[in-house]
Amino acid sequence: MEYVRRAAGRDRPFFLYVPFNAPHYPLHAPAHYVDRFRGLSPERRIMAAMLASMDEGVGAILEELARAGLRETPSSSSRATTARPARRATGSTVGPIPTTGPGAG
To answer: For the chain, which terminal residue's Cβ has fewer other Cβ atoms within 10 angstroms, N or C?
Structure first.
């Protein structure tokens, strides 16, 4: 957040790139996020925890931008990507590929 504070004080445009690994492989998340989703299957719990962690991180950035008076600037944007599970050099997948539904193929 220090970068946002410094950049906001300069009164000129700045670029903030924040790549998140979530929700891609490897699937891992801090226990305090995983514990929030006890009713889900193990893989879905991890995925939900990863998304909750990322959501919290994006929220913190947006709060800092708001404190700096930059939250409503027209140049603020975000982009999400969707990808299949990563493949090892052998060609096998790291995780399951859906056989039905939107991710099938």
So the answer is: C
Tens-binned pLDDT, residue by residue, of the chain (105 aa): 888 888 888 878 888 888 887 777 788 888 999 999 999 998 899 999 999 999 999 899 888 888 888 877 655 555 655 554 544 444 444 444 444 555 444
Tell me the two tokens of residue 58.
């994006």
Helices (H), 1-105: 2-9, 31-34, 42-67
Q: How far apart are CA 28 and CA 105, in angstroms?
A: 25
Handedness of CA 86, 91, 93, 98 (dihedral sign): positive
Amino acid type, 7? A
**CA-to-CA distance for 104 and 85, rounded, in angstroms?**
12
Beta bridge partners of 93: 87
